[in-house]
Design brief:
It is a single chain. The protein is built from 15 helices and 24 strands. By secondary structure, the chain is an alpha/beta fold. The chain has three domains: about 270 residues, 4-Layer Sandwich (Metallo-beta-lactamase, Chain A), CATH 3.60.15.10; about 150 residues, Metallo-hydrolase/oxidoreductase (Rossmann fold, 3-Layer(aba) Sandwich), CATH 3.40.50; about 100 residues, Ubiquitin-like (UB roll), CATH 3.10.20. The strands form five sheets. Strands 7-6-5-3-2-1-19-20 form an eight-stranded mixed sheet. A six-stranded mixed sheet has the order 8-9-10-11-12-18. A five-stranded parallel sheet has the order 14-15-13-16-17, sandwiched between helices. A hairpin with a 2-residue loop joins strand 2 and strand 3. It is globular. About 45% of the residues are buried. The structure holds zinc ion (2 copies).
Length: about 575
């Protein structure tokens, strides 16, 4: 396949260059954030967060590093939100604390983004500019056009960004679902005509499922499975769990439930909020007569209710997890309950989901999950859909985005198969900055892109804190306290040894006494050698660390404390 002739080729040399910096999302599934620069203006595409891995102890969430952006705060002209998932909008309530800028997105996307921004009392820092499918908007030097795409939340968009260096297409998260629940198709037709008329100079596209062969299942295929399950479980109470933003899944659960005469009861804070928001926007159709409050559930026979709740990923404080550990204040499980997890565990969540399933079964409930029935369909295009996309768009240059490195390289191979020359495919990672000019696209330096860990209220807990936590978790801590009079150069009290998570039981007292002896000798030697506070501290640390490692082959954190009387 030969790349399409680009009408701007040869003439773009004198025009302003365009750069794209990746703050996150290239190397992980999460914290998606890209910055497109031209003529001193920066347009952000998404600003998301990432949920922590299990080795990020105590971390609540992970953000992009905003350092580079904040140094250019006056240049930010706005942020496009491609859809309402947290990995695309969840970082906004942190960045907006530091700098004000307008948001552009569809009604539901902005509605979902607004929740956290409002909670953080930052509404005055931004404006919510609702865009319609196909609408064109000028933001700074860029002309934007928003094309509908199908995904696991309604109203997702691909963004066409017209720049001095031609047309860039950012796919957003998408699949090519030909029978979506709302009939709003991925606009392949418009994509094709843009590719024909103006040519796609650069494509940035979702790589999440690039390794998966074939086509993704249509969302509507899940509806039929849910319908059959409601039929099979007639007379039993049904409790379903899915993502609170997956309005189409909620619609299909509700439709199936209502067709068997059930009332629908949303449970969980975000589920209740999103159901009422989506109903107000006309995106979710549940008649008033079919929806009940969770408090009313016990007023109905089990066979006449269907609860829809949050927690399908086994999140610790979610409705489903609380239900599984019989701590949910609204619901108690009985052997007359069927629980349907209409979801698939995100990598990293398998263990918590499995534990929740175990606890549900232990309480006598029957559990249906994606390992047993097709109660879930992915929201991301698989290999054949991506090939279709490439065949329509035929970009001059391609950069895979949204994925771990393996997903992005799989996507690069697909692009190559579909005719983009290998030297026109750049597999970039977080922190890479690329520049597009008359000569094409090239790597052009780095920006800071560390993981920013948030624990508790605001701010960065830093990777030092995290590595200390890992040592504490794996090895424990040993503290040696000595009180030293530097005027007489004597040890006046201690050593006092305190430890947690190092040794326990019968051998502990003996080891600790021996350790104290070792530290005493080291302290006295250091004092005799004329050691100051710092030197004594170092001697204590070395003696304690050496002893612990020699006697127990362990490496707990050693905390030496030198005090003066
Ligand atoms: Zn995403
Ligand atoms: Zn998404």
């Amino acid at each position: 396949m030969v790349p399409k002739n680009n009408p701007r080729k040869g003439s773009s040399g004198a025009r302003s260059a365009v750069s794209i910096a990746f703050l996150g999302g290239l190397g992980e599934i999460g914290r998606n954030c890209a910055a497109i620069e031209q003529d001193g203006s920066i347009l952000l595409i998404d600003c998301g967060l990432m949920f922590p891995d299990t080795d990020m102890l105590g971390v609540d969430l992970v953000l992009p590093d905003f350092t580079w952006l904040l140094e250019r705060r006056d240049q930010i002209v706005g942020c496009v939100t491609t859809h309402g998932h947290e990995d695309h909008v969840g970082g906004l309530s942190y960045l907006l604390r530091e700098v004000a800028f307008p948001l552009y997105g569809t009604e539901l996307t902005l509605g979902l983004a607004k929740g956290r921004i409002e909670e953080a009392r930052l509404l005055s820092q931004t404006s919510f500019n609702v865009v319609a499918d196909g609408e064109r908007v000028n933001v700074g030097p860029f002309e934007l056009e928003f094309l509908p795409v199908t995904h696991s939340v309604p109203q997702g968009v691909s963004t066409v960004i017209r720049t001095a260096q031609g047309t860039i297409l950012h796919s957003g998260d998408l699949k090519i679902d030909l029978t979506p629940v709302d009939g709003r198709l991925t606009d392949l037709q418009r994509m094709g005509s843009i590719a024909d008329d103006e040519g796609i100079r650069l494509l940035l596209a979702d790589s999440t499922n690039a390794e998966e062969a074939g086509h993704s299942q249509s969302e509507t295929s899940v509806g039929a499975v849910l319908y059959n399950l409601m039929h099979q479980h007639e007379g039993r109470r049904v409790i379903t769990a899915c993502f609170a933003s997956h309005i189409h899944r909620i619609q299909q659960i509700a439709d199936a439930a209502i067709s068997f005469g059930r009332k629908v009861a949303p449970l969980g804070r975000s589920m209740r909020r999103n159901v009422s928001m989506a109903r107000e926007m006309g995106l979710l159709r549940i008649p008033d007569t079919s929806i009940i409050d969770i408090e009313q559930v016990d007023d109905y026979p089990p066979g006449e209710v269907c609860v829809i709740c949050t927690g399908s990923q086994g999140e610790p404080m979610s409705a489903l997890t609380l239900l599984a550990s019989s701590e949910n204040r609204w619901l108690k499980l009985t052997p007359h309950d069927t629980v349907i997890l209409s979801s698939h565990p995100i990598p990293g969540n398998e263990h918590s989901v499995s534990r929740v399933i175990g606890n549900l079964i232990r309480q006598g409930a029957e559990v249906v999950h994606s390992g047993i029935q097709d109660v879930h369909a992915t929201g991301h295009a698989k290999a054949e859909e991506l090939k279709l996309l490439h065949s329509i768009l035929q970009p001059d240059w391609f950069v895979p985005v949204h994925g771990e490195y393996r997903h992005m390289s799989a996507h690069a191979r697909l692009a190559e198969i579909m005719g983009t020359p290998k030297d026109r495919i750049l597999v970039a990672e977080d922190g890479d900055r690329l520049t597009l000019d008359g000569d094409g696209l090239r790597f052009d330096g780095q920006i800071p892109a560390d993981y920013i860990f948030v624990h508790g209220t605001v701010g960065d807990i830093g990777s030092n804190v995290l590595s200390a936590r890992r040592i504490l978790a794996d090895e424990g801590v040993v503290s040696a306290i000595v009180c030293v009079d530097f005027s007489t150069r004597t040890l006046v009290a201690g050593p006092e040894i305190a430890t947690r998570g190092w040794v326990d039981g019968s051998e502990a007292d003996e080891l600790i006494a021996e350790l104290a002896q070792r530290v005493r000798k080291a302290t006295e030697k250091s004092l005799a050698d004329g050691g100051n506070m710092k030197k004594v501290e170092r001697a204590v640390r070395r003696a304690a660390g050496g002893f612990v490692s020699e006697k127990t082959r362990r490496r707990p954190m050693i905390v030496p404390v030198v005090m003066e009387p």
